[in-house]
């Protein structure tokens, strides 16, 4: 693979922690919340690598608590992202940018060394419909045109460059697909600059400190997400609709199955930003299942209990 800034690994001694993460490039990144020192070396290195790449205002390690949930809801209501609805308790309306309302299969990629590890063999004139493949060299170019400095107020688009100084925080979201510690459960860690994503990951997965305790020094799926629109937004160039930051022109969702890694950029829509969903539970899990001898299903298991019956 060609040299790629976004995939550059960090040595184990490439950073140190006081009350902030100090990388070997002397980027001082404060810890807004959480105990960085209690994280496993693998998680620490993952966070430090991507914090150096994306240069956020600080690192916020999510614990999954009710207080954390309440704080995030209050912040999103204050910003106008959420609108409380009075008919039901703990119910909110979230309006998004009309351009960011669905998954984008045309911008979703599998990245493998060989094309036919990802897609079916078809004649050259026929486009496969079961998936999209991207080569490693192009993948590096796509990453490096998006992620460096993406939380620091600098992003390159096809039309212009936006420079700002109010950086976004980087949230660390440890989550478990399945019951925490369960024999079939899998763990991921998502890094995101979206507090809305944090809120939804708490709803959609088991998330927080207990996941880190169950993980120990084990392996995990690495998930990197950015809305792709650093603050402050210069409104002469971009109009943020419904307080929903996104960058539809630069959306990319890419999967590295062999490395157990997911990169998502430019979208806040659930299927594109909650990386435990289709990205992990279907695409990456299919590859994990192939290696471990099981199959990932795209399905839901549910039960209904009738109050007047003793069974369900």
Automatic annotation (TrEMBL):
Cellular component terms (Gene Ontology): cytosol
Gene3D superfamilies the record matches: Phosphoenolpyruvate Carboxykinase, domain 1 (3.40.449.10), Phosphoenolpyruvate Carboxykinase, domain 2 (2.170.8.10)
A GO molecular-function descriptor: manganese ion binding
EC number of the protein: 4.1.1.32
Enzymatic reactions: oxaloacetate + GTP = phosphoenolpyruvate + GDP + CO2
Domain of life: Eukaryota
Names of the cofactor(s): Mn(2+)
GO biological process: cellular response to glucose stimulus; gluconeogenesis; glycerol biosynthetic process from pyruvate; oxaloacetate metabolic process; propionate catabolic process; response to lipid; response to starvation
Pfam family, one: PEPCK_N
InterPro entries named in the record: PEP_carboxykinase_GTP (IPR008209), PEP_carboxykinase_GTP_N (IPR035078), PEP_carboxykinase_N (IPR008210)
Record's subunit section: Monomer.
Protein name: Phosphoenolpyruvate carboxykinase [GTP]
Organism expressing this protein natively: Heterorhabditis bacteriophora (Entomopathogenic nematode worm)
Lineage: Eukaryota, Metazoa, Ecdysozoa, Nematoda, Chromadorea
């Amino acid at each position: 693979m060609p040299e790629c800034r976004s995939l550059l690994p960090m040595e184990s001694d490439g950073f140190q922690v006081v009350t902030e993460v100090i990388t070997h490039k002397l980027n001082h990144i404060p810890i807004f919340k959480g105990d960085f020192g209690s994280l496993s070396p693998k998680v620490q290195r993952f966070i430090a690598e991507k914090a150096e790449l994306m240069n956020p205002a600080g690192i916020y390690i999510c614990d999954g608590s009710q207080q954390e949930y309440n704080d995030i809801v209050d912040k999103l209501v204050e910003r106008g992202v959420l609108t409380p609805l009075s008919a039901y308790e703990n119910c909110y309306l979230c309006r998004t940018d009309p351009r960011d309302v669905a998954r984008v299969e045309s911008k979703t990629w599998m990245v493998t060394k060989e094309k036919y590890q990802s897609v079916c063999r078809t004649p050259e004139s026929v486009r496969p419909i079961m998936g999209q493949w991207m080569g490693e060299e192009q993948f590096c170019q796509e990453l490096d045109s998006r992620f460096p400095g993406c939380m620091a107020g600098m992003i390159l688009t096809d039309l212009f460059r936006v420079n700002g100084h109010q950086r976004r925080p980087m949230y660390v979201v440890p989550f478990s697909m399945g019951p925490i510690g369960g024999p079939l459960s899998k763990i991921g860690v998502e890094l995101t600059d979206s507090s809305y994503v944090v809120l939804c990951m708490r709803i959609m997965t088991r998330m927080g400190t207990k996941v880190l305790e169950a993980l120990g020094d084990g392996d995990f799926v690495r998930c990197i997400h950015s809305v792709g629109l650093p603050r402050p937004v210069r409104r002469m160039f971009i109009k943020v609709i419904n307080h929903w930051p996104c960058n539809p022109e630069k959306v990319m969702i890419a999967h590295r199955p062999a490395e157990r890694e997911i990169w998502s950029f430019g979208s806040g829509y659930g299927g594109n930003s909650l990386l435990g969903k289709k990205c992990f539970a279907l695409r990456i899990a299919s590859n994990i299942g192939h290696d471990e001898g099981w199959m990932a299903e795209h399905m839901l298991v549910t039960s209904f209990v009738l109050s007047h019956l003793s069974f369900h």
